[in-house]
Protein: Alpha/beta-Hydrolases superfamily protein
Amino acid sequence: MENGIPKKPRILCLHGFRTSGEILKKQIGRWPESILRKLDLDFLDAPFPALGKSDVEAFFDPPYYEWYQRNEDCTQYINFEQSIAYIEDYMVTHGPFDGLLGFSQGAFIAAASPGMQAEGVAFTKVPKIKFVILIAGAKFLGFKFGQPKLAVNAFSSPVQCPSLHIIGENDFLKEQGMVLLESFVDPVVIYHSKGHTIPRIDERGQETMLSFIQKFQMI
Structure:
């Protein structure tokens, strides 16, 4: 609370694979004003330009970025550690942030971040991450068999960090998203009927999200 007015939670937003902070801003901007006016959102571009074609080229203009690269069978991750350091440096310079929001590749990172912080291998220079909002996310170990070395123990213990998961019934990552739920102590879930996308939030979803956000307006 600030002067009796609920504080807007400050959230660092991590976009999906081969998109951008600006694209994520436009996608999130479709959410109801009742939600957006309660949040202070900061959209960060990943540090690496896209190395291939983007799936959103027909809908959004470039530039496009990616957080890390991996080989075809998901056993090797490239530039993951550099991306985590880049995100942490941004949080130090532009923070403090209360929580993280991620979509797809950004959600993979956001999901692992509280565990990496608890392990003391990343995000040691910033305050404790209070919550995460994960859209179309999964954990690295749940996506085939590989995982970045920095995140190897991110889910070794139940994640105490409050989490809101937005899962599409027709998302190719739905099953992995359901597995991710089991890693968090008290996950809150919003389901939608679409696929691997950032959905519009219906009335029921609004109620769920506003209830989740309200917990952090008092901190």
About this structure: The chain has a mean pLDDT of 91.
